[in-house]
Amino acid sequence: MTERWKPHVTVAAVIERDGRYLLVEEHTPDGLRLNNPAGHLDPGERPEDGCAREALEETAHHFTPTALVGLYLTHAAATPAQPQGITYLRLAFSGELGTFEAGRALDSGIVRTVWMTLDEVRASAPSHRTPVLLQCVLDHHAGRRYPLDLVYTHPSAVYARR
User: Fold this and answer.
1) pLDDT beneath 50: ranges in the chain
2) Contact assessment for residue 63 and residue 15, using Cβ atoms and an 8 Å cutoff
3) Which of 4, 12, 60, 78 has its CA 20 to 30 A from that of 88?
4) CA quadruple 39, 40, 45, 47: dihedral sign
């Protein structure tokens, strides 16, 4: 093998309020899909900061990560654009839902936000963007919370975006 394997790092917010989970419905190459508020970690960004940014961009809600729910590795099937497929490493965080910015435009591709019960999340599994969405929610529901300092970001990895 001449090419080094590099998984794509993503961050996801697992947001629960009154027994309902906040998901986004988004356009994907496979049609409309549900996902946690999530996205790629940007260069120079700490994972918890990336999670807060993605939650705001996709839901218009401020979000403060307070715990790591888990780390999730998954592989997306091959496509013509990605003949080897893509492996993703997701860091999922729980936290505090903050203020809502009414009128804030959501990220391109996001159609709407939806609040779903655990049973509704389970029932909607065929329309999940990633197979780990349900596992993130199940782990949150089971009470899995790990300290944020479990994910250490060395200062050399945090820098101003160019």
Assistant:
1) none
2) yes
3) 60
4) positive
Q: What are the structure tokens assigned to 89, written together?
A: 């490493």
pLDDT on residue 161: 61
**Among all chains, which residue has been given the structure tokens 């809502």?**
100
H/E run at residue 156? none
Look at residue 81 in the predicted model and tell me its pLDDT: 73
Run of H or E residues at 120:
helix 118-123
CA atoms 28, 75, 158, 148: torsion sign? positive
**Number of helical H runs and strand E runs in the chain:** 3, 8
User: pLDDT, tens digit, for every residue of 112-138?
Assistant: 999 999 999 999 999 999 999 999 999
DSSP string covering 80-116? SS-TT-EEEEEEEEEEEEEEE-TTPPPPTTEEEEEEE
Tokens of 154: 């060395």
- pTM strictly above 0.85: yes
